[in-house]
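Tutorial, part two.
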Amino acid sequence: SKHAEKSNLMFAKEIKIKLGILLQKPDSAVDLVIPYNEKPEKPAKAQKPSPDEALQWRDSLDKLLQNDYGLASFKSFLKSEFSEENLEFWIACQDYKKIKSPAKMAEKAKQIYEEFIQTEAPKEVNIDHFTKDITMKNLVEPSLSSFDVAQKRIHALMEKDSLPRFVRSEFYQELIK
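Running the prediction step on this input gives:
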């Protein structure tokens, strides 16, 4: 749609201006923008893990994130303490890396930036200026790795901070009985 195309171009320009980079070539890849629709996060009848399986999550955020039930439980826990933006950002980055079309990628990159990265974003994640700057530079020409640095930072933060709190919570204690 013309509107989406215009907002993508505005976004690319805005980021280029912020970085002091002049437009060197016209953006023609943005002709086919199809808005990306979020799928609701309901795990498809996720299998409740065995206590042994759940116990492994204490030492491995990755094992937790790879398990649909664990992910849903972790998300509920974070929602209960109003800190789900880090996990939502991580999930958005995972989805982003599955996009094949450059136009859809540009659209999704803009959406992630506006929702999680930009200052005062509705779900602004806690990343340092250095990471924010790298991410913005990467968004001038969105690629599958545009958010990698920020995603790694947030992953480390969840591992250090959210995971230990989750492991002490009722949400988790229920799973290891």
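The chain is about 60% helix and 0% strand. In part three we will examine how such features are distributed along the chain.
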